[in-house]
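Quick one, T. Sequence first:
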Amino acid sequence: MYIKTTKNSLGQSYYHLVESYREGKKVRQRTLLSLGRVQDNKIGQLVEALARHGDNLGAISAAKDISVDKTYILGPLLVIDNIFKAYGIYAIINNILTQHPKLEFDFKKAIFTLIAARFIKPSSKLFVYEKLLDILYPELINSDLSLQHIYRSIDLLSQHKDEIESSLYWHNKDLLNHAVDIVLYDLTTLRFESTREDLNTLCKFGFSKEMRSDCTQVILGLLVDSDGIPLGFEVYPGNTFEGKTLSSIIDKMRSKFKVKRFIFVGDRGLFSKSNIDKLKEDNGEFIVGMRLDHVKGRDDEFYNIKNFTYESDDFAYYETDHNGDRCIIIWSKKRAERDQKVRDNILAKIRKKISNINNKKIKSFISNQNYRKYIKGLDSNAKLSIDEIAVNEASKKDGFYAILSNVKDISGSNLFGYYKRLWIIEDSFGEIKGNLQARPVFHWTDNRIVGHLVLSFLAYFCEAIMTKNLRLNNTISNSKSSDNNNIKNRPLTVVNAMQDICEVRAVPILINNQKIWVRTDINNNSAKLFNAMKIRIPPKLLKTECLQNVVAQAKS
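Structure tokens:
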């Protein structure tokens, strides 16, 4: 291993740490890291520590004891550290610490480490303790964190859940001038690798959105703003009906986020009279999906395309009144094509079953109402057949759906625009359950389950902040395929950026009685994320330690 100097086309000199290796019978060289320009004073300190050399190979002969044993992950820690500072997360943790003066471990670094781990290799708390603590840059974490203290940190997160959510929400907001928030709400299920319902009050069998009826689960209700930034969440037993979650989430929202005006946006699973009445309390405003099939006697009005105003050949809308609220019905060509395709698939399955059915199986033929409504003869001994009249009636409703709102001062098209943003919360669930791997859950007490979800909530908050900044900067991903015009340019995502940024390492170089910490290059997608987040790239030379001091500190 040696220091090599290279020059670019402009004649500028750069230092590189290089090692030789054998490939077959040939000896080759590879660059471990670039150390910066020769005239950079800070890099000069490193070079001087290595040796004063006049040729490219002089450093290794001048430095009698040089060693690079391992590298440590640095890049993700720098990004998360910046978010913790900029968005008040460190301040929130410090406030929690003041309420626990007898705490005997570094709670701040424990939470930082656990959240950073979700971006590096999302896994169990045990894996963080056994594997990740040894490969993260020790300056930013507590490498001596015990497993007991990791679990204690999760318990504290659960205990201070409401405080964390409220403090994050109000960070850098003006209480007097903050006028209105669009709040998106939806639910999902999180499974447990267990079939026991007696371990706590949350893990129950219920309808699984993950199609895992063999596992117990909890219901996660998530609130996000229109930029996808999470505001708060609630956890419900796994057998809770979706519509029954609204009352508690509204009460908590009003008590926790005391702003002048909220507009609540939810999907049609929340559409019921009791929920609408709850939303209207204290002059509450809402935009919710509406089930047209639940409104009787108005089909001729709702599905008459002559009543609609076309904004394009593919999109039309009609606004009317329903129980004193604004009802906006939309027709979409894309939605109509999807509805027809779904029905055609159902009919194909029905025809296949009819051809193989015998009279003994008629009563148990199909239980799904979406199938039964298209079949004649299920309630008698008549020959089964497709009900063409029912198929024709269903086709007349292809492409139609509706929203209900009591907001008076926003146009119908803008209300619909807000409702369409519910894709953001679906995307949130995908990130929380997928990339950040909040499930399956391996905790078995209510307190620990909630603490795990607070940790997932904070990790997703950090990811949402990164996503927002990447989008604001219209950041395009660097990739070999797009550079060669094999694919079109694509926006840079947090997942892609993290793949690169995990390769930004801190390297301890041992030279005589010194340990010199340097970092590898930050370029390509890593540099783009730093730029979008307005993070100052740290110097190449991170830190210099005297090994005698290090040994003395270890003994003390």
